[in-house]
Specification:
This protein has 298 residues and is mainly β. The chain has one domain: Beta Barrel (Porin), CATH 2.40.160.
Length: 298
């Protein structure tokens, strides 16, 4: 699932820039704008503080039509080990069902079955994950619309029966939104994350304050700006002890090759740096799409 989000992140500019330059470019695309049938090739290289590099390769193909879709993905890590994922989905009268099977290098499989149902005021999304050992965990999401946003409750139950809940209150305003989440762990302890996003002339500013069960806080300040062919996204994170981490990202899209490139440099509190170069090429080109900078920060 995390890999799906990574692919979506890499495709964001391709989807938004193909219509109108960088207007509205964010970092999260809508899957509906992908071609009905297509493929993608992704290469991600991480470079550590000592200069050592590791590369991951990922290839995907997908097909859709008549209310159903499927996707096949193969990922190879720096050691040459391979994971494969098969996803099959189909529309239902009020949503969809989705089945995902991931097979690791050792041949063992993990499955995730999702049932998504819309209702008059929102939706439910229930997922059951079965690991290689046959043990299951569940992830149940309920979203209800409000006058200016939504309320969301997520309950995750592990194989041992213990639960974690996350309750979110999302409210839009004239210049952006606020998003406040309270997470309660299996031991009853709570942490919170309060996010504020404000639109700017060419992007958005985002601040997040996370408070752990011990009362200690971490703050994150992000400045996102659109450029002629992509974006810049600079984040400063201050930890509970005062240590500062910076994360500077740039993204660009080449419409001639349908390729999105993302470069990220992270400087850690000790002054050491790590970097990521991430490229994804989609065939055929994504369909035109427009997006909103503030909503992309959600």
């Amino acid at each position: 699932m995390r890999l799906d989000r990574a692919l979506q992140s890499c495709l964001c500019l391709a989807l938004s820039l193909s219509l109108a330059g960088a207007a509205g470019a964010g970092e999260r695309p809508e899957r509906k704008h992908l071609p009905a049938n297509g493929s993608s090739q992704r290469t991600l290289t991480r470079t550590g503080p000592a200069g050592q590099s590791r590369t991951w390769n990922r290839s995907s193909t997908w097909q859709s039509g008549n209310g159903a879709w499927s996707r096949q993905t193969t990922q190879t890590n720096p050691q040459g080990k391979t994971w494969s994922t098969q996803v099959d989905g189909a529309k239902t009268s009020d949503g969809y069902v989705r089945n995902q099977t991931t097979t690791g290098p050792n041949g063992k499989t993990t499955t995730a079955v999702t049932d998504f149902d819309r209702n008059a005021n929102g939706y439910t999304k229930d997922t059951t994950i079965t690991g290689p050992n046959g043990k299951t965990s569940t992830h149940d999401v309920t979203v209800q619309k409000t006058a200016d946003g939504y309320d969301r409750t997520v309950t995750t139950t592990g194989p041992n029966g213990k639960t974690t809940t996350a309750v979110t209150d999302f409210d839009r305003n004239a210049n952006g939104y606020t998003k406040d989440t309270t997470i309660t762990g299996p031991n009853g302890k709570t942490s919170t994350q309060d996010v504020t996003v404000q639109k700017t002339t060419d992007g958005y500013d985002r601040s997040a304050v996370t408070t752990g069960p011990n009362g200690k806080t971490t703050t994150s300040l992000t400045d996102f700006d659109r450029t002629a062919n992509g974006y810049t996204k600079d984040t400063t994170i201050t930890g509970p002890s005062g240590g500062v981490t910076t994360r500077d990202a740039t993204g660009s899209y080449d419409p001639s090759t349908h390729t999105f490139t993302r470069d990220v440099t992270v400087m850690h509190p000790d002054g050491k740096t790590t970097s990521v170069v991430d490229t994804t090429t989609v065939t055929p080109a994504p369909a035109p799409a427009a997006s909103n900078a503030a909503s992309s920060a959600q």
